[in-house]
Backbone:
């Protein structure tokens, strides 16, 4: 997901996006553990998406606090 798409969402939608990404990342880790993961690149992509969403969420919260 691109940062520009995330910036268009509100705080509640970003929090939901983060939880969805965390669940997806957990599923990928379980697939890796059971050796059913087809693409190992998906783990890194999901991890970067989580970090991107958390960063934008923190920016929005910091902006709303001012």
Residues:
């Amino acid at each position: 997901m691109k940062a520009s798409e995330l910036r268009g969402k509100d705080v509640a939608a970003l929090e939901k996006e983060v939880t969805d990404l965390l669940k997806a990342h957990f599923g990928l880790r379980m697939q890796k553990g059971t050796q059913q993961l087809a693409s190992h690149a998906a783990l890194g992509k999901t991890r970067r998406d989580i970090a991107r969403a958390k960063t934008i969420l923190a920016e929005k919260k910091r902006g709303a606090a001012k």
